[in-house]
Amino acid sequence: MKKIHLICLLLCCISNWALAQSRTIKGKVTDAATGEVLPMVSVQVKGTTVGVQTDSRGHFSLQLPDGKTELLFTYLGYAQLSLPAVNDMQVKLEQSNKKLDEIVVVGYGTVKKRDLTGAVASIKGDEIKKVPTTNVMESVQGKLPGVDITRSSGSAGAKINVTVRGNRSITANNGPLYIVDGVQYESIQDLNPNDIQSMEVLKDASTTAIYGSRGANGVIMVTTKRGVSGVPKLNISSYVGSSEVNGYPPMMTGPQYTALKREANRTTGRWASIADDPKIFNAFELDEIKNNIWTNYANELIHHGLQQDYQAGISGGSEKTKVYFSFDYFNEKGILKLDNLKRYSTRLNIDQTINNYMKVGVQSQLTYYDQSARRDPLNQANKYIPLGVPYDSAGNLVLFPNSGSAINPLADEQPNAYDNTTRTTRTLANAYLELTPLKGLMIRSNLGVTLENSKQGIFASKASIDRSTASTSRSSMYNNLRRFLSWENVITYNKSFGQHNFGLTGVTSWLADKKESSQMQGEGQLLPSQLYHALQNNVSGIAIASGYEESKLLSFTGRLNYNYKGKYLLSFTGRSDGSSKLSPGNKWAFFPSVAGAWRISDEAFMKSQQTFSDLKLRVTYGIAGTDAVLPYSTVSSLSKIPFSWDDTNAAVAYTIGDQTGNKKLKWELSATKNIGLDFGILQGRISGSIDVYDTRTHDLLLKRTLPTSSGVSSVVQNIGKTRNRGVEIAINTTNISTADFRWTSNIVYSRNKEEIVALADGSTNDVANGWFIGYPVKVYYDYEKVGIWQTSEADLAAKLGYKPGDIKVKDQDNSGTINSADRIVLGAQVPKWSGGLNNDFKYKNFDLNIYVYARIGQMINSEYAAKFDPQGLENSANVNYWTPENPSNDYPRPNASLSKDGTPFIKTLGYKDGSFVKIRNISLGYTFSNEMLKQLHLSSLRLYVTGKNLFTFSKVKDYDPERGGALSEPLTRMYVAGLNVEF
Q: Which residues belong to any copy of the TonB-dependent receptor-like beta-barrel domain (predicted)?
């Protein structure tokens, strides 16, 4: 019995001792002005690395170690606060001035926003998640000044086109450099938006010069989430959405097509009344016309799509070990059959503190794609004669309706008719070692690798659209391997002497890129069900090919940051790059930059004024470059050709490839001037930035067409100049802020003037390639359509060689004749300006987001507007064409004796103003109250519905002009329901 008492006494002592060692501190953090709860606030035990983050309700709970009495509260955009640790803490944080202490990620480091000297646009992960998308870049469309983002098509997993401050190169790549957690990563579509902590866009030469040759087209830096110490947190997000085509203009109906063909033959005198129908229609067509039987093939092909995403992420860790892990499954079914994408991705980020001066970690991502694509059938459907139906009375597909040569547009959807499947595995792994041996000194080594393995198989039977004119099927297999290595070493040293603050950064970088490819194909697969899996069973056309590319880049970089009293800021950067792609003697180039900033609002003479809470002037200049050519462009290649001495004896022969090598290739260089102003008004309720820039690019890496007498078709040379100049404005406003209601707005405006300054011989236009001095890189050059010649203008039309009903174009030089000298640049594919307006409303537990995007001043070549067959041999767009009884000024008179290509100025029909304004996103959400969450045993729960790409306002009817004019793979709108849960 005594032993039991002793044991109980001992247990009580141990318990009391343990309680004395630590105790639990709980509390809640809110905004001091509005009372709004603040999630993700860092709560740290002062003097230790022990800490947690507040949950979605602003609550926190942590163990206070023995002997510690203070907690430190930090949150982006709020002043840091230190308070004694007590039970049931009610912490109120004050907003800091314009979030000046917010950390912004720049090349090889971070900097406070107040100390930033260059042009950098930043957006946080919460903003990125507002628009449910396949590609994270689509979700920031119109939200980043100076960044032009468009969707390439509406197919599942379609790529996104991104340019920063216009097109600098003419034929070289203009896409930005993507850096994910410090490592180059081209496949931005792999990233799960829920994994992103922040995104920064480096735009001017001061910020991009540290990336040298890789940063000439801008740099987009993505920082993913990290683990935090404390109790593990599990976040689950999911949404399901239904998509539909965002407007699709109709082709002619059966009666409309019949009227077109009748009119085309009336013009030639072959048709005068319905009694003449047997002269122009066959028996099948006559029967369908009589019974009014016809088909809209586009409607048969286009269906509703489905998009769904399921994501789970967990973060946690101890004082020394922090882990973040996520899994994401994304599935998109396109609006066309056989158009499907499945994406599986996982991310694991680990940070391990070894001791006071050593830290290691790894960031990794594994992504797997299973994608089925198809040859777009809408081109076939839109020209197909609508008379008749695609299926017979038994419901079987009629492969060649009307006994014609044109195959049914639905042919590819039949079993074993067509298959195009690509499976891709991509792995990104980046390991780092970080040493801090001395105060202010940090040494970091990053080793990154990207491994990609892609296999694509294509089978097209003789009953498919692609092989409908061939006698056999075709099977093809494409294999691609890629290995990208990156090894970078970074040394930074920060030191202060009184009010003088210095920061030094040194970088060495080694990049190696290797690609391998192989291709196999055959024709006449014995068993169609084998598709492309048994190529040896093809009976003819067996062919193989393979390829190999390798390139390396070596770089050395230095940067000096200096500030005096925190208000006079200077930055100097120099980078030297050596590229294996360029010629000996031209492989190396040096890229310098300088930037200065003056924090005017910190001056003594600004203390008495009440207008500006923040005011900073920035000026930068720098040079960046690019080596964006294919490896081995400096040498000429050989290719094998068939050759024989006579009718029976063959020999192996070779010829020089189409592109000849250039032994003098060097860097393409861009010099950029930038003047910027950051401001805050009314204690930060209105804040923003204005940037004006001028980028001049010379020694363009231009693929130049050569005369046929040279024996080759092209060569890449350093010739030509371009210029991009513009203005960017970003404004953030807090319109209303009370305890129950908050309304904030973000306005973005970008205007860029892109122009070619010089070409091959300096001042001569390259009409063949469509390049013109003083105009953007991509323009439309043609005759200017001003209407249709009318009957009252018959005499004037005859003088020019035309007649009433023909297309009328402008005589630009008033010469009295229409010739090639009357062609002009009609418009450009790039906009004159673009912008976005984002509004966030929050009332109690409800939140509403409305986002409007505009892209103004670009021209498109509308495939629909140009889809007019004057002979009536194919279907046409439903347009208002000229007849003697209907003197339209829109489209010419149908003419059965005149082919489409032979119709004068027929191409002018397609040029349209492609400007648009669209409601990009409307999202309504509800966050459950604390009382309800307690009953559900959850930390946070939010339900929401979203409409994406809901309304488009433009001059182009029933079409989303963001697509650029093409009728294939139309863009979509989507309706989404989703939830976010935190445990």
A: 379-950
Residues 6+ apart with CB under 8 A from 463: 399, 407, 411, 414, 417
| pLDDT tens figures, 541-560 | 889 999 999 999 999 999 99
**pLDDT tens figures, 649-693:** 777 788 777 888 888 889 889 999 999 999 998 877 899 999 999
d(C-alpha 77, C-alpha 95), whole Å: 6
Closest CA to 613 of 79, 98, 78, 101: 98
Q: Which residues of the chain carry a pLDDT beneath 50?
A: 1-21, 98
Query: Is residue 60 one of the residues assigned to a domain?
Result: yes
Residue 363 lies in a domain: no
User: How far is the C-alpha of 840 from the C-alpha of 828, rounded, in Å?
Assistant: 34
CB 370 within 8 A of CB 423: yes
Predicted TM-score (pTM) of this structure:
0.84
**Number of residues assigned to the chain:** 983
Question: What single string gives the DSSP state of each residue in 407-452?
Answer: PPTTGGGSTTTEEEEEEEEEEEEEEEEEE--STTEEEEEEEEEEEE
Residue 820 lies in a domain: no
Helix (H, G, I), strand (E, B) or coil at 602: helix
Structural domain of 74: 24-96
Q: Looking at residue 74, which CATH number applies to its domain?
A: 2.60.40.1120
Whole-angstrom Cα distance, residue 215 to residue 668?
A: 12
CB atoms < 10 A from the CB of 289, how many? 18
- The number of CA neighbours under 13 Å toward the Cβ of 351 is 16
Q: Are 745 and 721 in contact (CB under 8 A)?
A: no
Q: Using alpha carbons only, give the angle 605, 607, 611 rounded to the nearest 5 degrees.
A: 105
Which tokens belong to 371?
Answer: 């994608």
Q: How many folded domains does the chain comprise?
A: 1
